[in-house]
UniProtKB/TrEMBL annotation:
Family matches, as InterPro entries: GTP_CH_N (IPR022163), GTP_cyclohydro_II (IPR032677), RibA-like_sf (IPR036144)
Alphabetized Gene3D superfamilies for the sequence: GTP cyclohydrolase II
SUPFAM superfamilies: RibA-like
Region (Disordered): 1-36
Official protein name in the record: GTP cyclohydrolase II
Domain of life of the source: Eukaryota
Species the sequence originates in: Discostella pseudostelligera
Residue span(s) of domain GTP cyclohydrolase N-terminal: 45-232
NCBIfam families reported in the protein's UniProt record: PRK07198.1
Transmembrane portions of the chain: none
GTP cyclohydrolase II domain segment(s): 269-409
Length: 470
């Protein structure tokens, strides 16, 4: 079959309807509120984006960076309005595939529009001046949590617009916090920290919304090169990256981030009020399962302890948790690197820490911190008093966007697991901030810092016996 679509309709009119039963036309408005009539896509056929019939779209305009949300325009990325859609991709990051599974399994009606009635934020974020500066916010929709408020007119007319940010509260309970209470480092106050060890947080989950021209600028390439690279390395899953250069918004199928706040979020933009902050990249092996090969969980829980202290002193603590597993290379690649590190001659060593990743993946790190400061700007951060990170890359990325960092706090030496000495030594030698605790890491120290070694059972050429490399 030559056709790219199944039961492709004969014309645009046949496959879209307006909620008022007449064709809307380009931004046709039946009222004087300036909001077009939604064209509802009939979802009983498969419409491939590579099919010419899908190209006659009439997207709702987006003016990225405009401080007025109505002039900026709502991000429309559901399957409901294929002709007015103004973003490439789908909602919920990689979980969009599960939405497809749910429809396939007959568990979800593709026409279902979420009931957002009780979903609005439980505390206020913004607006901040940074929201209208694409150099500060280009990977988050700063109005993503305000959908039901600022785009009420669109929702009322029948547009299916999804929040890309959800704002809520929680009590969190960590064994390290309870240990800190037992050791006298933390004292429950019944407000931020309960006697049970629970701490009270405000939090927000954010899915990425990329404004492609600015993303390209930050990575030092043209927008065309960025679009072509993503198209190529995803085996072409988003043809509109190539065919629709007029659509500048992309919801990438990647992990998002979570913001955790201790203390009053309203104080975050106030430079006179102490702000303690860690930006943390996901490490499931350590963060959740306590692997001793790295410092991820101990550094994270130390940061939380410092955040609680700052909040108890009237300031604010902030942890931003990025889903960037294994330096954004993924957990499979990470474990392959672990095996390479442990099995190389002489075992795991600080000297070869970075080269092992490069040997396996072809690159040392794909986290590229260029987009990392965006959630800080989304929250209105202009000054961080205590930055709980030793990373030079994170530090440089943040200060280069105009945020001031006063103190850089290293992980206390006693929190570094034995097998993670390799990681911390390699990182400090290669430019991480040594602070007071890690001074004097030179080439000698690098050479002599070694970690665990795995025996490597490889099949003996003679008779299938296993030999172990020493
Ligand atoms: Zn880790």
């Amino acid at each position: 079959m030559a056709s790219n679509s199944t039961s492709a309709p004969a014309s645009k009119k046949a496959r879209t309807t307006t909620n008022k039963g007449k064709a809307g036309g380009p931004h046709d408005t039946s009222t004087d509120d300036g909001i077009p009539i939604p064209e509802i896509t009939q979802l009983d056929y498969v419409n491939l984006t590579s099919h010419t019939d899908a190209f006659d779209v009439d997207p709702i305009p987006i003016s990225w960076g405009h401080p007025d949300p109505l002039i900026r325009g709502p991000v429309i990325c559901t399957v409901r309005h294929s002709s007015q859609r103004n973003a490439i991709g789908a909602h919920s990051g990689s979980y969009c595939i599960y939405t497809g599974l749910a429809v396939a399994a007959g568990k979800l009606n593709p026409d279902y529009v979420p009931n957002l009635k009780l979903t609005s934020p439980v505390f206020n974020i913004g607006p901040h001046p940074s929201w209208s500066d694409p150099k500060k916010v280009a990977s988050i929709d700063p109005f993503g949590h305000l959908t039901t408020e600022v785009y009420r007119g669109y929702l009322d007319k029948g547009f299916d617009i999804r929040p890309t940010i959800a704002v809520t509260k929680a009590h969190i309970d960590l064994p390290e916090t309870r240990e800190a209470i037992a050791a006298g480092r933390l004292v429950p106050d019944g407000k931020i920290l309960l006697a049970s060890g629970q701490s009270i947080v405000s939090k927000a989950a954010i899915e990425p919304v990329w404004y492609l021209p600015e993303i390209a600028r930050r990575f030092g390439c043209s927008e065309a090169v960025l679009r072509q690279s993503i198209f190529r390395m995803t085996n072409g899953i988003y043809p509109e990256l190539i065919t629709r250069p007029d659509i500048k918004i992309f919801l990438p199928p990647i992990g998002g981030l979570t913001i955790y706040i201790w203390g009053d979020p309203d104080t975050i933009p106030d430079e006179d009020i102490e702000l303690t902050c860690r930006v943390h990249d996901e490490c499931n092996g350590s963060d959740v399962f306590g692997s001793d090969i790295c410092t991820c969980r101990p550094y994270l829980t130390h940061a939380i302890e410092e955040c609680i202290k700052t909040a108890q002193n009237g300031g604010c603590g902030l942890v931003i948790y990025f889903r960037k597993e294994g330096r954004s290379l993924g957990e499979v690649t990470k474990y392959l690197v672990y095996n390479t590190r442990k099995r190389q001659e002489g075992g795991d060593s600080a000297e070869k820490y970075f080269s092992c990743t490069e040997q396996v993946a072809g690159v040392q790190d794909t986290r590229f911190q260029a987009l990392m400061p965006d959630p800080l700007h989304f929250l209105g951060v202009t000054k961080i008093h205590n930055f709980i990170s030793m990373s030079d890359m994170k530090y440089n990325a943040i200060v280069s966007t105009g945020i001031q960092i006063v103190n850089r706090i290293e992980i206390p030496k006693e929190l570094v697991p034995d097998d993670a000495q390799v990681e911390i030594t390699a990182k400090v030698y290669h430019g991480y901030n040594a602070g007071k605790a890690y001074q004097g890491i030179d080439q000698n120290e690098l050479k002599k810092t070694v970690g665990r070694e795995y025996g490597y059972d490889k099949p003996d050429e003679k008779k299938g016996k296993n030999v172990v490399d020493e």
